[in-house]
Amino acid sequence: METTRPPRGLDARRRDVLARLRTERDVWVASAGGPGAPYLVPLWFLWDGEAVWLATRATNPTTRNLRDGGRARLAFGDTYDVVLLDGTVEVFAAGEVPAAAADAYAARHGWDPRREPRAFAYLRVLPHAVQAWRGEHELPGRHLMHDGELLDGGVPSRGGGRPGGG
């Protein structure tokens, strides 16, 4: 674990999180089902500047859990460059998803779930909390968003409810 460099400041962490949201392809999606049974799956995603879009089969436990529970935790990276994003979930059937989101998802991944023979669902995760850290020395400043508000030096800012403001 790297601790020789000083911890990144809030602005640097926001820039790094936004860069990852724009460039990475996969995210770990955590949900809980039934009597709290945990589920963790990797899925492709799209960041639209406000929310994370996922697509998976409509009958999968992940879709059911996120629909029924209404919230998800998304995890990026390894244990030396962590981004955790907690958000509320809205589920769309493939025929009901906003075309702009589905088209952008298909363009990014070269695959269009709307064209699959099995029913797929799109899941929109709107962030309400974001944490980011690289090593133990960055744990104290890891919270970037809380209750849908960006943090500015540990307190909510006026920048709105998106990592880095969009």
Describe this structure in words.
By secondary structure, the chain is α+β, with helices and mostly antiparallel strands. Helix content is 20%, strand content 40%. The chain contains three helices and nine strands. A hairpin with a 2-residue loop joins strand 8 and strand 9. The longest helix has 14 residues. It is globular, with a radius of gyration of 16 Å. It starts with 9 loop residues before the first helix and ends in a 10-residue tail after the last strand. 28% of the residues are buried.
Q: How would a textbook summarize the main sheet?
A: 6 strands, antiparallel, barrel
Q: Spans of 5+ residues with little confidence (pLDDT < 50)? A: 155-166
Sheet-strand content, in percent, reads 35-45%
Integer-rounded radius of gyration: 16 Å
Q: pLDDT average, as an integer?
A: 88
**Number of β-strand runs:** 9
Secondary structure class reads alpha+beta
H-E string? HEEEHEEHEEEE
